[in-house]
Design a protein that fits this description.
The protein has four helices and eleven strands; from the N terminus they run H-E-E-H-E-E-E-H-H-E-E-E-E-E-E. It is an alpha+beta fold and 270 residues long. The chain starts with 9 loop residues before the first helix and ends with a strand. Strand 1 and strand 2 form a beta hairpin. It folds into two domains: 48 residues; 180 residues, Na, k-atpase alpha subunit (Immunoglobulin-like), CATH 2.60.40.
Length: 270
């Protein structure tokens, strides 16, 4: 008849563990002699050094196959985005709402535009973008002929936005019902607007600002802008849609209704 295995006490288990950690009979630490521990430690050090070196070499080779002048992240969408300033959001849409009787309210809008237009300061633009671009043509550059192995960028100055530049009227019209908005595209639609004035004239961005070669190739590049001054009527509220007008740019995408366009509400309170 088989006998039951004797149950060991907690003290005996601790004694066995201590004997495993250090066995004084054969001089082993956790089952291995000090010499074997040295060998296995050297093996793992060498193994991870080699693995790290191989990984670093693979990354180095990969980085040298990528052009530093190509953006790291690209979208599958072919149409450019459209943005509007002041960029004040209300829920899921852009709500440009201000109170003409409240200075803090309309000053908030004008301050947003002043901050946005800082890079377009005439002094800054002609310091870094002094190339004389040919209007009406794509500015194709096959070589890096600008200083520091870069490409030239066409200057776009704040004064080109005319009455919406903030130079003549620092309030951008937000102290009344003739506000200015700044967009990157050239068309505005819908009602409750008695008049729209475009800056530059016709609201067209010149082809000389394209193509864009990336931040590294054109570090001084600034986006061309279009500014519109609205004259609001009726309840002083309007729904505005700005979209890209080009044969090669899509703006009617069923899966992305905002591709190539931006929609915002403009409201003046009193």
């Amino acid at each position: 008849m088989a006998t039951l295995k004797e149950k060991r006490t907690c003290g005996q288990r601790c004694e066995d563990f201590g004997h495993f950690v250090w066995n004084s009979d054969n001089g082993t630490f956790m089952g291995r002699t000090p010499e074997k521990w040295v060998y296995i430690s050297l093996y793992y050090v060498a193994f991870y050094v080699v693995m790290t070196a191989l990984f670093s070499l693979a990354i180095w080779v990969l980085m040298h196959t990528l052009s530093p002048y190509t953006p790291d992240y690209q979208d599958r969408l072919q149409s450019p985005g459209v943005m509007v300033w002041p960029d004040t959001y209300g829920g899921e849409v852009i709500e440009i709402t201000y109170n003409t009787s409240d200075k803090a309210s309309w000053m908030k809008m004008s301050n947003i535009l002043h901050a946005f237009l800082k890079p377009y300061n005439e002094t800054k633009q002609f310091e870094c973008n002094f190339y004389n671009c040919t209007k009406g043509k794509y500015f194709i550059q096959k070589t890096f002929s600008a200083p520091h192995h870069t490409k030239w960028s066409c200057p776009f100055t704040q004064s080109m936005l005319g009455e919406c530049s903030g130079l003549e009227d620092p309030s951008f019209g937000y102290n009344g019902t003739r506000p200015c908005v700044v967009i990157k595209m050239n068309r505005v639609m819908y009602e409750n607007v008695a008049r729209m004035d475009y800056f530059p004239n016709s609201g067209v961005m010149d082809l000389s600002y394209f193509p864009y070669y990336g931040k590294l190739a054109q570090p001084s590049y600034v986006n061309p802008l279009v500014a519109i001054r609205f004259s609001l009527v009726r309840e002083k509220q309007a729904k505005i849609q700005c979209r890209v007008v080009s044969d090669k740019i899509s703006y009617e995408n069923y899966y992305d209704p905002y591709e190539g366009k931006v929609i915002f509400n403009l409201k003046a309170l009193k």
